Amino acid sequence: MENQSISRSANINAEYATPHLLADIGGTYARFALELGRGDFQYVTSLLCADYVDFYAAIRAYLKTLPAELLIEHAAVAIANPVDGDRVSMTNYHWHFSIEEMRQKLGFDTLLIVNDFTALAMALPRLGPNDVQQIGGGSPRKQSVIGLLGPGSGLGTSGLIPAGDGWISLGSEGGHTSFAPRDEREIVVLRYVWKHFEHVSFERLVSGPGLELIYRALVEHGHGMMREVNAPEITQMALDRSDPFCVEALDVFCSLLGTAAANLAVTLGAMGGIYIGGGIVPRLGEYFEKSSFRARFEQKGRFSRYVAAIPTFVITAEHATFMGASAILEAQLRTLSSDPGSAILGQIRRIRSNLSPAELRVAEHVLAHARAVVNDPIAEIARAADVSQPTVIRFCRSLGCEGLSDFKLRLASGLTGTVPVTHIQVTDDDSALELGAKVLGNTASSILQVRSQLNRDMIERAISLINRASRLEFYAIGHYGVVAQDAQFKFLRLGIPSIAHTDSRLQLLSASVLSEQDVVVISSSSGRLPELLEVAEKARERGAKVIAIAASHSPLIRKADVALIVDHVEDVTTHLPMVSRILHLLVIDMLAVGVAMGRNQGSASLMRGEADERLDEATIENPVMVKKAGARNQAPGVSLASPLAKLTSHSRE
């Protein structure tokens, strides 16, 4: 056990009420530290993962080495594994655990689990000139994308995107992209590895286990004597030049890392530079600077000049991953302290004494199973807490939330330790699979962004207007014509007279004969098209109500009676709206579902009213049957929640 500690009387920096526990978990070692103030890492310890049955045992062993008087409330763990949801199962080791269960067992208020290279990426803005070593030429461009990769037990990749005064980190598994050889020697390696693995990724070769594979491939091809040697031994013999196969293996390794780094550079457009971390390269020292890495990095065919301008750096800072994990934890705690809506768990703890017994059961369930509640449907939450579904809604509103959907959104923001990517640029070098993943990822991120900006009052007003309308007309132009046509089909099926116009001349003629009982829904991404502005004015002159689906602060929004904001900037160079058109279609879906649910609820209310009338008549003739008849005629499944509350709840489930 390697342990660097300070005296028991150490003072904690005033900006930290309690020390922050930080961890960097790899496939071989688990490193821990306490941060007493920004950048002040103490009690640094490295534990061998193989000595502990699971993550909990390792962290408990570390905690036992600390002074008893130290109170730890907040922790951040960087782990060599993708982090998606509550369950963590390490790719290159057997540890697995539930984040929320671990937080409770350890007694922490905050436990953030992030990908190790996402954490390392967030450290890059905090690195100084003495924390890195530049390899080759090139100069970083300010406020540009930065790429990161590094071989260890696997090949981690990440990146940083500038966003205002801060950065957005990318959670990436780019190390699993398919390996492609560049010369005959690498073809030899590929053929050898194919004997053992169906798919050969860059991680399979550009890693500690990968260096061992390269060595065995070269020995077999060169008819040498195969020896059982591990990656550190191969590296040392290469640096000593005591074994020609080890020398060649390390040279191949550096070349492949150059290829992987160049691929990342052109994929991200990383003009801010490519940084190399991990447990292998920083230990190579001067050898790596003179290796084939940079030459291979710049061998990119037509894009050779492009990558030659991009600098490459080796991260030499001792505690870089701790710095990144600290940055993410610091940002999270700052959010929790400045935004009461995000600190929802603390708010629940404070109001427990004021809750009714039923609402208190919901509170206890949320506190015990916070991450599960984010994904569970309302029926499951109600069943687990042994309450009715309306009680769950009342509990959410007692916290100032609009409903279950709003509550889940705030709860999730208080639990997550990563920052979602808002947009990933598609490049010419992307494969079909990469293109598909980026398009889907960008769409999903945009939907989540619009969901967080929904205005409940505006949606309810739009649904109310549509419910009272004698006639619905949908106007859109160009690529957004499908939005109008889709809306016409949906509302006709709901029994509402509807028509879609996508020709500007027909729109103006139709708007000229509208009445005060009619409603017009206009879909426009920019909200600035003169033709649509003109029909909006004409519709309002005729007394019709106008619902606009458009960007905020646009002229169309100012002319509308109800504004449904969809802010999404498309790449105009493609002349093809993709994501924003999907967002407009989803807004139409929300309106249609809201109208349908409102009508169903109205039918149920009417059914109850008719039953009450029959019950009153029956009471005169046979009072004994009143109680039984009332029970039989209660409409099943009818909730007091508004149609919008139901709609937003269902949209999350």
UniProtKB/TrEMBL annotation:
<keyword id="KW-0511">Multifunctional enzyme</keyword>
<keyword id="KW-0418">Kinase</keyword>
<dbReference type="Pfam" id="PF02685">
    <property type="entry name" value="Glucokinase"/>
</dbReference>
<keyword id="KW-0805">Transcription regulation</keyword>
<dbReference type="Pfam" id="PF01418">
    <property type="entry name" value="HTH_6"/>
</dbReference>
<keyword id="KW-0963">Cytoplasm</keyword>
<dbReference type="InterPro" id="IPR003836">
    <property type="entry name" value="Glucokinase"/>
</dbReference>
<keyword id="KW-0547">Nucleotide-binding</keyword>
<comment type="similarity">
    <text>Belongs to the bacterial glucokinase family.</text>
</comment>
<dbReference type="InterPro" id="IPR009057">
    <property type="entry name" value="Homeodomain-like_sf"/>
</dbReference>
<keyword id="KW-0324">Glycolysis</keyword>
<dbReference type="InterPro" id="IPR035472">
    <property type="entry name" value="RpiR-like_SIS"/>
</dbReference>
<dbReference type="InterPro" id="IPR000281">
    <property type="entry name" value="HTH_RpiR"/>
</dbReference>
<dbReference type="InterPro" id="IPR050201">
    <property type="entry name" value="Bacterial_glucokinase"/>
</dbReference>
<dbReference type="InterPro" id="IPR001347">
    <property type="entry name" value="SIS_dom"/>
</dbReference>
<keyword id="KW-0238">DNA-binding</keyword>
<keyword id="KW-0804">Transcription</keyword>
<feature type="domain" description="SIS">
    <location>
        <begin position="462"/>
        <end position="601"/>
    </location>
</feature>
<protein>
    <recommendedName>
        <fullName>Glucokinase</fullName>
        <ecNumber>2.7.1.2</ecNumber>
    </recommendedName>
</protein>
<keyword id="KW-0067">ATP-binding</keyword>
<keyword id="KW-0808">Transferase</keyword>
<dbReference type="GO" id="GO:0004340">
    <property type="term" value="F:glucokinase activity"/>
</dbReference>
<dbReference type="InterPro" id="IPR043129">
    <property type="entry name" value="ATPase_NBD"/>
</dbReference>
<feature type="binding site">
    <location>
        <begin position="23"/>
        <end position="28"/>
    </location>
    <ligand>
        <name>ATP</name>
    </ligand>
</feature>
<comment type="similarity">
    <text>In the N-terminal section; belongs to the bacterial glucokinase family.</text>
</comment>
<dbReference type="InterPro" id="IPR046348">
    <property type="entry name" value="SIS_dom_sf"/>
</dbReference>
<dbReference type="Pfam" id="PF01380">
    <property type="entry name" value="SIS"/>
</dbReference>
<feature type="domain" description="HTH rpiR-type">
    <location>
        <begin position="342"/>
        <end position="418"/>
    </location>
</feature>
<feature type="region of interest" description="Disordered">
    <location>
        <begin position="630"/>
        <end position="653"/>
    </location>
</feature>
<dbReference type="InterPro" id="IPR036388">
    <property type="entry name" value="WH-like_DNA-bd_sf"/>
</dbReference>
